[in-house]
Amino acid sequence: MEQIHVVLHPAPLQGHIKPMLCLAQLLSKAGFHATFLVTHHTFKLLPDLTALSANFPNLHFQSISDGLPEDHSRALEFGSFSKIKPYFKHFLLNYSLGDNSMSPPLTCIITDQYLPYTLDTAKELGIPIFSFVSHSACYLLAYLNISKLIEQGDHIPFPDDNMNQEINGVAGLEGLLRRKHLPSYCALKDIAQNPQIQSHLKDIFDLKGCCGLIINTFDELEITILPQVATHFQKVYKVGPLHALSNSKINQNLSHLVASHASRWQADQSCIAWLDSQPLRSVLYVSFGSHAKASVSQILEFWHGLVNSGKPFLWVLRPDVIIGEDGKHVIPKELHQVGAKENGFLVDWAPQEHVLAHHAIGGFLTHCGWNSILESIVAKIPLICWSYDWDQMINAELVSKVLEIGLQLDACDRLTIQRTVQTMMGSKREELQNSIERISECAQHVIGNGGSSNQNLETLVEDIKNIKLNSQHDE
Question: Do the record's keywords include Cell membrane (predicted)?
Answer without folding.
Answer: no
